[in-house]
Design goal:
199 residues, Immunoglobulin-like, globular
């Protein structure tokens, strides 16, 4: 017998792909690439471009959109390492962001989403290490998600307990990327997003 959450995976994936289309203009306004690395979750330039931030919790911020209603807590990596053939290389990447998304209209209530700033290798996965507990996210283009609502819940629980999340992935060009996200402020930001868009 197939578990219910696995039977729902195709529906979840379709919801996520539709959400990506809706979020692209919003993400373009955030202008976060590399700017969050040291002290501020959202630099002045990003604040000028995007006016929908409603909270900042240490290394995480909360954004809200009203049409359609959606909320997300988001952070950029504190450290990024790109390697090819075992050697550190410099590569150009777009926005690198880790989200928890609440979209009541489409039933998305706490989806873990990652964009690596490049197209992922076809049929590859993103490995997520949170305090020694590992998870996998499936990829589509420049986006990655947990496979099921149950996996989202497990990842969020680990993120609440952890200090950092390390996401390792492979680009379509064969570059391996390792992005380290601080989890300081994660729980408070998550609670704020859930309060604004949760049930």
């Amino acid at each position: 017998m197939v578990p219910a959450e696995d039977r729902n995976a195709p529906l979840k994936r379709q919801r996520q792909l539709e959400a990506v289309t809706e979020m692209k203009p919003i993400l373009a306004g955030l202008a976060l690439a590399g700017a969050l690395a040291v002290t501020s979750v959202f630099p002045a330039a990003a604040q000028e471009t995007s006016t929908n931030r409603v909270a900042a919790e240490t290394d995480w911020s909360v954004f809200v959109e009203s049409d359609p209603t959606e909320c997300w807590s988001v952070s950029a990596p504190k450290e990024t390492v790109n390697t090819r053939d075992g050697r550190v290389v410099e590569v150009r990447r777009g926005d690198i962001l880790l989200f928890i998304v609440y979209r009541p209209g489409s039933g998305a209530m706490g989806e873990v989403t990652f964009t690596g700033g490049y197209p992922f290798a076809p049929n590859s996965t993103v490995n997520v290490d949170i305090g020694g507990t590992t998870f996998e996210m499936f990829t589509d283009g420049e986006w990655a998600w947990a496979a099921s609502d149950g996996d989202d819940t497990k990842m969020i629980t680990a993120m609440k307990r952890g200090a950092e999340a390390v996401l390792t992935a492979r680009s379509a060009r064969g570059t391996q990327t390792k992005d380290t996200f601080s989890l300081l402020g994660f729980t408070a930001a998550l609670e704020e997003a859930e309060k604004r868009c949760g049930s």
